[in-house]
Design brief:
By secondary structure, the chain is α/β, with parallel strands linked by helices. It has one domain: Rossmann fold (3-Layer(aba) Sandwich). Helices cover 41% and strands 16% of the residues. The longest helix is centred in the last third of the chain and has 29 residues. The protein is globular.
Amino acid sequence: MKGSPMPKLNPSEIVLRRADVGDVSIFYREAGSREHPTILLLHGFPTSSHQFRHLIPRLSQRFHVVAPDLPGFGFTTAPEGFDYSFSSLAKAMEAFTDTIGISRYALYTFDYGAPVGLRLALARPGAITAIISQNGNAYEEGLSDGWAQTKTFWAEPSAANREAMRGMFTLEAMRWQYTHGAPDETQVAPEGYWLDYALMSRPGNADIQLGLIADYANNVALYPRIHQYFREHQPPLLAVWGANDPFFLPAGAEAFRRDLPDAEVHFLDTGHFALETHVGVIAGYIQDFMGRLRPERVQP
């Protein structure tokens, strides 16, 4: 609850919490000391804060780490009639940061977490100390041919095109998202995509996700404003990219340098869910990147 004192955390312990933001109950994972710089981890489709289960302990010795489940995902709950749009998800996260009392933080953005997090940056540029993008797209050249069916749905949101998108919610489709492009599929723990499938299969969730897929077109339309934000505010940016991602191409990572000449870009031999195979490498890049920022920039 807003205003309640938060106990100090054992850096190695991940604490599971809930924050009431209006009628939305946001489930989140937290670790590390609040005296350290905060990193806000924003997950993507079809997953939840569970995707950060191995990253959080690797960062929490040096950082205060917060990983919420977005409305419509994981264990966050929202009332009937909630507006499942990316704008609403961003507003919920903005209210969430106020509720738990974090006013300055680095953003870790992945997949859907990118349009949510970058909306936070547009609304409160002074709150953002840095951006870490792990396959979190912000440029049209980053969109692969794998978006063709989705773009058809955007252009003609007919019942038939909407129904065609339901194939994304099968167990096999989710398993493929996790394993495609991984150097060794046996490194990808099955509980990730099985949990996602179970949560996505809850009554009514498919319609929530179809609404967000339709709304994603508004994220692409927002790209010019995001690029302007980059140019004007020059946030330090680290892009750590699964180079074999079937959805977001390496060109999308390289494009950050167009507006952020000092952006640091690394490619990994893996797919979309890079944390499943390269969590140690990614944690190392983050620690090195954040450690080189001026202390006055990143301190809470």
